[in-house]
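stage 2 :: seqdesign
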């Protein structure tokens, strides 16, 4: 369980978010949504203590996250942050093995269990064939899968994911989020795609204008009038197999100009 209460946080004395709170119960997948720059990553980074809030408290299973250190923090929380560039000459298998650190003795040789965990994590994201490749040579989507595999190998009870579907092709976007839902971990995930959020999150938190504008089920939060207000876009709700999905159109759609079409008149 992750509980954030009355969080105010920002950079260089300037607050990005004021008095925000959220709760992710055991096994729940909570989606953080909102326009660019609304503070989704900032709030997520506060949840794993990469950022210190100027006010408020983050509890992980009722313990302040700031009290968790080293291996204990890593056993409890796994993170896929945005763009973690590395030019280190490490293989994909070694990259995923880093996720095993909280379960291994320092400098210990790779155990059979480590081998199994790495292979199984790579297989789950469809990247087993990449195991011997150098991580820095992978494509964006391949890297993203490997970073997700690393968090799986970590076997943490809580997952914090910042746009994990970034770079993934459409099938893997769905596969990844379905898999996250099946892990049974407590998850907070930043998503831009509101249809993915509606399909795979049990609860959504909508950030805008320095705070939380709405929180609740996808049906409650993805209300067309709210989306028009926050994103400036029309959203037409449709039900697909009983799941809310949205069809978007611009609020003030200008007439489309096609360069190749004949000029009227
Ligand atoms: N390290 C930083 N120093 C100063 N300002 C920052 C820093 N990181 C983010 N910001 C600012 O904080 C605000 C919120 O950024 P954040 O990355 O949390 O937004 P976001 O909702 O995740 O955005 P996006 O959807 O574009 O990824 C933005 O105005 C951004 O410019």
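stage 2 :: out
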């Amino acid at each position: 369980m992750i509980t954030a209460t009355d969080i105010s946080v920002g950079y260089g004395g300037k607050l990005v978010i004021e008095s925000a709170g959220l709760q992710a119960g055991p096994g729940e997948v909570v989606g953080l949504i909102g326009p660019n720059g609304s503070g989704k990553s900032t709030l997520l980074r506060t949840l794993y203590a990469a950022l210190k809030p100027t006010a408020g408290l983050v509890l992980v299973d009722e313990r302040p996250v700031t009290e968790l250190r080293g291996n204990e923090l890593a056993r409890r929380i796994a993170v896929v942050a945005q763009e973690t560039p590395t030019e280190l000459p490490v293989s994909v298998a070694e990259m995923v093995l880093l996720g095993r650190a909280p379960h291994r003795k320092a400098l210990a040789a790779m155990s059979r269990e480590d081998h199994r965990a790495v292979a199984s994590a790579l297989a789950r994201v469809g990247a087993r064939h990449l195991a011997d490749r150098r991580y820095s040579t992978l494509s964006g989507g391949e890297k993203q899968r490997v970073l997700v595999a690393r968090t799986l190998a970590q076997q943490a009870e809580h997952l914090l994911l910042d746009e994990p579907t970034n770079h993934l092709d459409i099938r893997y976007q769905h596969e990844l989020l379905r898999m996250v839902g099946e892990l049974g971990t407590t998850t907070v995930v930043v998503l831009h795609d509101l249809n993915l959020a509606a399909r795979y999150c049990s609860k959504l938190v909508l950030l805008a204008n320095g705070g939380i504008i709405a929180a609740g089920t996808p049906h409650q939060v993805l209300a067309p009038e709210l989306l028009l207000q926050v994103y400036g876009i029309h959203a037409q709700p449709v039900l697909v197999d009983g799941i809310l999905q949205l069809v978007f159109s611009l609020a003030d759609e200008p007439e489309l100009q096609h360069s190749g079409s004949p000029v009227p008149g």
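stage 3 :: structure notes
- Residues 71-156 form one domain.
- Residues 140-154 form the longest helix (15 residues).
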